[in-house]
Amino acid sequence: MSAQPGPLRPAPKVAGRILDAQLHLLDRQVLDHDGVPVTTVDDLELAGTAVDQAIEPGTAAPVLTALLTGPVLGTRIFGGRPPSSRLIRIPWKDVAEVGVVVRLGVSGESLDAAWVERWVRDKIIARIPGGSHDPR
User: CA neighbours within 13 Å on the CB side: how many for 134?
Assistant: First the structure.
C-alpha cells in the first residue's frame, strides 16, 4: 500500500523577483556598468539562514546579500571550500540587472573582484602587438 501525496498548495505570492541561484546566478559573467568584464559568480551570501540547519516550513525565505567570487577552481576540482576570507564580496545592492550576464550599476575599477581582469589586461594583453588599443 503506497501513501498518496495530498494536493499541492499554490506557491505563496512574493514581492520582487524569484531567482533560481544555480540557473540565474552561479557561474554567470559579471559586467560593470560600462560592459567591461569583472569576474564570474562563484558563490552567494545569504542572510536569514544558518549553515547546516534545516529550514522549517513557513520560515521566511533567505535574502541574497552579496555575490561571492574568488579562487574556487581548486576546490571545484579537488573538493572542499575556500576560506571565506579569500572570497571577494560584491554587494547585491550593486547589481543592476540579471540576465544572460549579471550587470552591475557601478564601475568595475572600484571593485576588488576586477583585479584579475585588470592584471591580465595590463600585463599580458597590453604586451601583445596591437593589444594596447581598442580596435573599434
Answer: 2
- pLDDT at 24 exceeding the cut of 60: yes
- The one-letter code for the residue type at 46 is L
102, with CB counted inside 10 A (0-12, 13-18, 19+), is: buried
Are the C-beta atoms of 72 and 43 separated by less than 8 Å? yes
The 3-state DSSP class for residue 108 equals helix
Pairing state between β 29-31 and 37-40 = antiparallel
Among 59, 58, 36, which Cα is nearest to 46's?
Answer: 59
pLDDT band at 135 (very low <50, low <70, confident <90, very high): low
Task: Please calculate the CA angle 61-62-63 and round it to the nearest 5 degrees.
Answer: 115
Question: pTM above 0.85?
Answer: no
Evaluate whether 38 touches 30 at the Cβ level (below 8 Å).
yes
97 pLDDT tier (thresholds 50, 70, 90):
very high
Average pLDDT over residues 19-39: 89
